[in-house]
Design a protein that fits this description.
Chain B: Pfam families: RNase_PH (PF01138). Chain B: One of its GO terms (molecular function) is mRNA 3'-UTR AU-rich region binding. Chain B: Keywords: Cytoplasm, Exosome. Chain B: InterPro entries: ExoRNase_PH_dom1, ExoRNase_PH_dom2_sf, Exosome_comp_Rrp42_subfam, PNPase/RNase_PH_dom_sf, Ribosomal_Su5_D2-typ_SF. The complex is a heterodimer of chains A (295) and B (356). Chain A is of the alpha+beta class and 295 residues long. Helix content of chain A is 20%, strand content 23%. In chain A, the strands form 5 sheets. Chain A has a 4-stranded mixed beta sheet with strand order 1-6-7-3, with no helix packed on it. Chain A has a 4-stranded mixed beta sheet with strand order 8-9-12-11, with no helix packed on it. In chain A, strands 14-17-16-15 form a 4-stranded antiparallel beta sheet, covered by helices on one side. In chain A, strand 15 and strand 16 form a beta hairpin. In chain A, helix 4 crosses helix 5 and helix 5 (259-271) crosses helix 6 (281-292). With 356 residues, chain B is an alpha+beta fold. Chain B has one domain (8-178, 224-355): GHMP Kinase, N-terminal domain (Ribosomal Protein S5, domain 2), CATH 3.30.230. Chain B contains 8 helices and 14 strands. Chain B has helices at 8-18, 106-124, 158-172, 195-199, 203-208, 259-264, 296-305, 313-355, and strands at 37-41, 49-55, 66-78, 89-96, 135-137, 141-153, 174-175, 179-181, 221-223, 232-233, 242-249, 252-254, 267-274, 282-289. In chain B, strand 13 and strand 14 form a beta hairpin. Chain B is elongated. The chains are: A alpha+beta (295), B alpha+beta (356). The interface between A and B is medium-sized, with 35 and 29 residues.
Chain lengths: 295, 356
């Protein structure tokens, strides 16, 4: 004889569930009423989580009212002042930027150029579409604005010199090899722009004429935050590759990079023929000898 | 699969450079050029065979390039009571150094290690490549060949480097020479003998005593006789395969990708070939990696670029790829072979100097 039984009803006790779930008490309203001050401030909300009834409490930032309930609209920590419930978002309005440094640098939403002019106020919609400006993996050039108390850098890109990088490739060298120059934005006569970052990241890209850069008044967000490369002809591409290889050879020989040395090395390399040979040992040594011997 | 973050503009820059009339890569290489490969065998003195391989390291710099350390260690296994297999077995393990992948979480690192280990183990421990001299005593003892590889740094093309390092380490491996030993109880016929003789009777002697009718292998243990070298090389060591990775960005493909280039293409075809000194080259394994797909239209494009007049579109592509892969694998194999022979000569000279 075979009998079928149903499964025991699932237990709703979350306390024994390990993993990435936030602790969630059974009776939300009671929780809010009782220990809202101390214990709940460490609790995180998720967007759409019902916090409490709107009859007893007022909704603040980060919440909205739905069916007589106060509902969180962001992930964050709950704060309460008397009857006012607010949710402070977890990571607000900033990007973390790898700056080849001990700590990640921080780029605030308020420190980038937003579409629609410099004087425009930040809106909540800007926060929601931060990924349309910069997203994961994007490369950008920025200036250090300030340092936080823990030594982390705060960056800004509120100039047309700064912003998203495209039309080229990245070369990474030890940071000590970058000398302080009058300008770290170089243009080589071979139609290549160089950005010598003080953190050792060097951006080698196609030259963009000054008057073709995205203008101040007609700030074109689509052009500034575009991911698409311009058309780059083969001569420029091989020039970019050649400059990248020169930088790599010089860095391998521990020679500090300045505009003068790069120019001289480029002229020397042009006479030497193929680009990939630069990475060979003897050619590299000849290049270094040619650049470092005084004339 | 991408282990480095890459921005969209970098990705499209790499991809569009590949599709030019004269394809150009970031460091000026042509599509089918390899970076400089450095190789040294005998780097780990305590192992039975070892090798270090670096792809793309610039000569002056300390770091850089994809660096792999491979070492083999032989271990005696009991077949009756342990995990041993008749004729010995091979176990490959790949470990990724966290320093090589600083931005990967430990879990992601484990996954990556597992992927590498699977491909390498399945290819190298295949029956067709099994060396014949890994057995010690039939039905009793056999060697377990542990092949351990460590990825010390990764700048692309890890699979090719792993296979190169594995091949070099296996080429370098010396199996200790063993002699079977039987412990014979002293019986009436051997009473006249000296006790020391009775303790150490070699196998052929033991078979002469016609008392043993049970016909079980009489040797119960083995000893390591003095030998002029650390041992014999693995049998059939010329068969160990090399691997070629074709990074496919339709309609073209390229070899020896840097990590940025690996991140920019979505499809990789791994082909490993074995080139025995006698006979034809054989393909030992094939893997298609990555989320990309080859569509029929793209394959047809491939065909128009490559060869035509084959009945099935896919056959042509695969045929072409295999042919190309075999061509490059053959080149890689002969270069590696000559380097390994050089290394042998160098180390023998060193040994001779040391003896003098």
């Amino acid at each position: 004889m075979i009998t079928f039984t149903s499964f025991p009803p699932p237990s709703f006790d979350n306390s024994d569930v390990s993993g990435g779930h936030y602790r969630q008490d059974e009776d939300m309203d009671m929780d809010l009423e009782n220990d809202f001050g101390e214990g709940a401030s460490k609790r995180l909300t998720y967007p759409g989580e019902t916090l409490t009834s709107s009859q007893a409490f007022m909704r603040g930032h980060g919440t909205f009212v739905h069916d007589e309930d106060v509902v969180a609209s962001v992930a964050g920590t709950i704060e309460r002042v008397n009857k006012l419930i607010t949710v402070r978002p977890v990571q607000p309005r900033r990007w973390k930027v790898d700056a080849n440094s001990r700590q990640d640098a921080i780029l605030m939403l308020s420190s980038v150029n937003l579409p629609g002019g410099v004087q425009r106020r930040k809106l909540e919609s800007d926060e929601l579409q931060m990924r349309t400006f910069f997203e994961e993996g994007d490369l950008l050039v920025a200036e250090v604005q300030a340092f936080f108390a823990d030594g982390a850098m705060s960056l800004h890109t509120r100039s047309l010199k700064y912003g998203k990088l495209r039309n080229g490739q990245l070369v990474s060298v030890p940071p000590v090899l970058i000398r302080r120059l009058k300008s770290h934005f170089l243009t080589l006569p071979c139609g290549v722009d160089l950005i010598l970052g003080l953190n050792g990241y060097i951006w080698v890209s196609k030259h963009v004429k000054e008057n073709e850069q995205e203008g101040e008044e007609g700030f074109d967000a689509e052009a500034v935050y575009s991911n698409r490369n311009d058309n780059i002809d083969e001569a420029t591409r091989s020039a970019i590759s050649r400059v990248s290889n020169i930088i790599q050879v010089l860095a391998a020989h521990f020679i500090a990079l300045t505009d003068a040395i790069l120019l001289e090395a480029y002229e020397w390399a042009l006479e030497q023929g193929t680009i990939k040979d630069l990475l060979q040992q003897d050619v590299g040594e000849a290049l270094v000898a040619a650049v470092t011997t005084p004339r | 699969m991408a282990t480095v973050p890459i921005s969209k503009s970098e990705k499209s820059y790499i991809q569009s450079s590949l599709l030019l009339a004269a394809p150009l890569r970031a460091d000026g290489r042509a599509l089918h050029d390899y970076r400089t490969v450095s190789l040294e065998t005998g780097v780990a003195p305590l192992s039975n065979g070892s090798a270090k391989v670096n792809i793309g390291k610039s000569p002056e710099e300390g770091g850089g390039g994809t660096e792999i350390l491979a070492a083999t260690k032989l271990e005696v296994e009991s077949i009756e009571s342990g995990a041993g297999v008749e004729g010995g077995r091979i176990a490959c393990t790949v470990t990724c150094s966290p320093a090589a992948y600083p931005h990967l979480s430990p879990n992601a690192l484990d996954d990556l290690q597992y992927d590498y280990t699977t491909v390498l183990h399945q290819t190298l421990s295949h029956q067709s490549l099994h060396p014949s001299n890994l057995g010690i005593l039939p039905k009793k003892k056999a060697w377990l060949l542990n092949l351990d590889l460590v990825i010390l740094s990764d700048s692309g093309n890890t699979y090719d480097a792993l296979f190169m390092a594995a091949r070099a380490a296996l080429w370098d491996t010396k199996v200790p020479v063993t002699k079977p030993v039987q412990y014979a109880a002293r019986n009436s016929s051997s009473t006249s003998r000296l006790p020391s003789d009775a303790m150490d009777v070699s196998q052929d002697e033991a078979q002469q005593s016609g008392f043993d009718t049970r016909r079980i292998p009489s040797a119960t243990d083995f000893e390591l006789p003095d030998y002029w070298d650390e041992g014999e090389v693995l049998a059939g060591r010329d068969k160990w395969p090399v691997c070629i990775t074709l990074n496919i960005h339709p309609p073209t493909y390229f070899l020896d990708a840097t990590s940025m280039e690996e991140a920019a293409v979505s499809l990789r075809l791994l082909l490993s070939f074995s080139f025995p000194s006698k006979g034809h080259a054989t393909m030992q394994s094939m893997r298609l990696l990555g989320p990309g797909e080859l569509q029929l239209a793209q394959i047809q494009q491939f065909i128009s670029v490559c060869i035509s007049r084959y009945p099935s579109a896919f056959l042509v592509l695969s045929h072409h790829c295999f042919q190309e892969g075999e061509k490059y694998a053959q080149r890689l194999h002969s270069a590696l072979e000559s380097k390994l022979r050089d290394e042998e000569v160098r180390r023998n000279q060193r040994l001779r100097f040391a003896l003098r």
